[in-house]
Amino acid sequence: MVLALYPAAVFAWLMTQFGSVSGGDVVSSSWDWVPTMGISLSFHLDGLSMLFALLITGIGTLVLAYAGTYMKGMPKTDRFFMALVLFMASMLGLVLSDNIISLFIFWELTSFSSYFLIGYHHEDKESRKSALEALLITAGGGLGLLAGLILLGIGGGSMEMSELVERGDQLAESGLFTGAMLLIIIGCFTKSAQFPFHFWLPSAMAAPTPVSAYLHSATMVKAGVYLLARVSPVFNGADGWHALLLIFGGITMVLGAMIAVMQTDLKKILAYTTVSALGLLVMLLGIGTGIAIKAAVIFILAHALYKGCLFLVAGILDHETGSRNIRKLGRLFKQMPVTGTAAVVACLSMAGIPPLFGFISKEYSYESTIGMVINSPLTTSAFFITGMLFVAAAGMLSYMVFFGRRNKLDIKPHEAPITMLVGPAVLAVLSIVLGVFSGLINPLLDQASQVVFPGNEPLNLKLWHGINTELILSMTTLVAGIAAFAFVYYNPRLMSMIEISDKIKPSYAYKQTMDSLAELAKNVTQKVQNGYLRVYISMMVGTFCVLALIVLKDFGIPNIEVLWSDFRVYDIVIGVLMIVACFYTVVAKSRLLAIAMLGVVGYGVAFVFIIFGAPDLAMTQILIETLTVVLFVLVLWKLPHYLIFDEGFIKFRYFLVSALFGAIMTWIVMLITSHPLDSHLKTWFAESSYPLGMGRNVVNVILVDFRSLDTLGEIVVLGIAAVGIYGLIKFTTEDDKEEAI
Amino acid sequence: MEDVLPFLIGGLYAGGVYLVLHKSFVKLIIGLIILGYASNLMLFTISRITRGAPALVPEGAEALVEPYADPLPQALVLTAIVIGFGIQAFAIVLIKVGYRIVATDNLDDLNTTDRLDD
Hints:
The structure holds two protein chains of two kinds. Chain A starts with a helix and ends with a helix. Chain A has helices at residues 5-22, 47-70, 77-96, 100-118, 125-156, 161-164, 168-174, 177-191, 200-203, 209-218, 222-235, 241-262, 266-287, 290-321, 337-351, 357-370, 376-402, 418-436, 442-452, 469-490, 492-497, 506-528, 533-552, 569-587, 591-611, 615-636, 648-673, 680-693, 698-706, 708-730, 734-740; strands spanning 27-34, 39-45. Chain A contains 31 helices and two strands. Chain A is elongated and about 120 Å long. In chain A, α3 (77-96) packs antiparallel against α4. By secondary structure, chain B is mainly alpha-helical. Chain B has a single domain (5-51, 69-111), classed as Helix Hairpins. In chain B, α1 runs antiparallel to α2 (25-46) and α2 (25-46) runs antiparallel to α3 (71-102).
């Protein structure tokens, strides 16, 4: 509840700027972030941003107040509100950002926070699936968007949106125009749930209702529309822009409305009508004429008002009656008069009945489809069908729930608490007020349309335009819509018989893709992570060899100048002895022989240390070698037969890998020793050991004096190993104890 | 000997890796020990070796007199040997306990936690 003050404060601040922004001024401020890459946190408040920012903070305030009551008694509300406020902030950042990179970051943040909000009931598998679906689709599209924005930035030579919108020509010359346009369109289509990506939005209804009201009707899904509108000055008029937006927007619009009237769940009806409304917005942007842009701007506001209200009403119904099925609900007006009134007003706005704001929006939409130069009849009839279905859906949402047949509820519903009623009531009242006194909002909407379509004729909102084609069409739509509603209402059985095969839905394609991806990942994991240690090690060694060879190929093989005069017999004897012992360790058929040969190799190493002036090393080596062999023999005498596996050809492969590795190591050692080494440490220790450490054995002085902390660490390691060994020896399972008894 | 050492190191590395690639747990440990020898020798060798001149300050002198062996790599290798022993001892006991519990020395029988179930 208190949280709601925060967006309310932002809303209030925005209202103080209302006058100047609707007068055409721009409020902006900027901080450098990564100046070398042209990334800054620059914010820009113009008409379009203002419209969205007001919706975000205004509806945000209402939703937060509402959610305080709605979520009472539910678990993890702190997490929920954190995600909701995070979303609010990101969304605000998105619509205010001028820098395209920071815009993208806010864009991704909205996807990210909505993931948590949709997945609020994370114990529920469906909920998790829906959240992931929404995230993958919107974030996947976001990747396309990032690429598109970067192309836009490179082509336009600026990272600021306010400069880019004036540089359409420069972008066209750079040859990046089409690529940037397509990628941005993909990003926007995924976010704004356009066909064929629309299915994530109905699934996202798994979220708590305040979230659906806020994210999935008023704000997040409009982000795509916002960005399309924002870049519209650049792309408007280009080949493909109109066609793509018009076709996909139109399909989404008609399809969404058609599916909506087949639903019985309140939230699903709302979700599909939202999909349809988003389609309409994209289509209007695609028409791209001055009047169409005006219609789009008006509809953004109208839709946010009535759809936000209806979602909140759906939440109240769910909360108070425990059901969202329109076939179960009915005649609730008497028990819930305030909720009912708000819902009816919102539905009238949705149906486009005067004097509500939705009516104005519908008039403008008709005007823009009629005014199209080509394809006008097709677009107009598509809009006619959608409008008709909207009327039917509005009827389903109001008449069937609050009047109509007796409800089949088990409990007696009653009116919701006042905190929950405020939201829908305010939104419903706004729908009426803005409809009657449209002059209040006229300057802002005019500015917004100027931003999207520079040089647009001034907007002049009026409720009554006189009797013209639009009005006649509008009335016809209404009549047809009521007829359609009557059909749905009186033939519930017929409606429920309509079944659409899963295979033609885009969600099926999504599911197939995800399943095959998971299958592929599983196969790859099974190949790569197969559980055989030797495969892992040979992979690592092999990779090392390849990389080492790439580096080493530039160096020659050093000359081996054998000065026979330098050679001593015992050198050769030791060398040969060690190689032979190593060979027998490898091929030994008995464990004892292998361990004995290992001992020989170890003593050989000690001997090398003696020859080259390292008596301390030699001593340690001899001690430890002896201990190892003793330990081996003591511990391992009870083990089973030494395993000799016949691995045939594979054995040869492993032999090759090992031999290659050995050869490369020889090569590396020869290369390193053939270059001079200049170590000042050597002289420093040689000179300081006695004066500073008071010791004549320099190695010892280093260990116990200069690097004594290292030695302490070493002792600790040994101590831990000893404790570990003790623990292992004492470790007995229950079975062992039983056997002992 | 200086010319023989690189080949000796290479031979030890090859033998160590080859042993590690076997199925037997015991061979794996022996292979690791041999790899340890090879690495110690390599570290020792690449920091230059000096024959028969330990880094000991003679009586009456204040500093080492050339020629003398570089003491720093010796100190490093000494640490490496000791730590290596800690690991070896632990691994050897681990084989023992592991065998008592799972009754096998075959690494291929011990990989169930690392595989996807079909």
